[in-house]
């Protein structure tokens, strides 16, 4: 998925995650996975620059909890003159902080997760 935003200051990506280890329920005696919806909102806070975003779903094996996969969405953010990468949603990092609604400001120095209450938490770009 690739998104471009200059005039739009807000980009919303809805991540629908299906995992056999998340929210299971019984249907006719069988275990069926229930989709988990995670809404990630990214606001372009670059100074009048065109921001392009491309995100990919990556599931990584969590060694500490070997019975399940850890859900990670990795994105590339590009504007002139370069490209930066960041895991815009990492289940272990973000679920305790924002559960199913994560808000981010995208800045030149890195992305900042904006909570409903309290100060934003900023991260450096991944290299």
Automatic annotation (TrEMBL):
Family: Belongs to the plant self-incompatibility (S1) protein family.
Entry keywords, A to Z: Secreted, Self-incompatibility, Signal
The organism of origin for this protein: Arachis hypogaea (Peanut)
Gene Ontology CC terms, in alphabetical order: extracellular region
Domain of life: Eukaryota
Subcellular locations according to the entry: Secreted
Protein name, per record: S-protein homolog
UniProt KW Transport keyword: no
Signal peptide: 1-29
Short name of one Pfam family: Self-incomp_S1
GO BP terms, alphabetized: rejection of self pollen
């Amino acid at each position: 998925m690739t998104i471009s935003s200059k005039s739009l200051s807000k980009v919303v990506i809805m991540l629908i995650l299906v995992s056999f280890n998340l929210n299971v329920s019984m249907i006719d005696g069988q275990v069926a996975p229930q989709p988990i919806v995670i809404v990630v909102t990214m606001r372009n806070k670059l100074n009048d620059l065109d921001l392009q975003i491309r995100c990919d779903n990556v599931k990584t094996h969590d060694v500490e909890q070997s019975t399940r996969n850890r859900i990670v969405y990795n994105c590339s953010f590009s504007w002139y003159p370069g490209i930066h990468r960041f895991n815009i949603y990492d289940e272990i990092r973000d679920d305790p902080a924002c559960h199913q609604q994560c808000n981010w400001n995208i800045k030149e120095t890195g992305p900042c997760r904006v909570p409903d209450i309290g100060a934003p938490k900023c991260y450096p770009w991944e290299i």
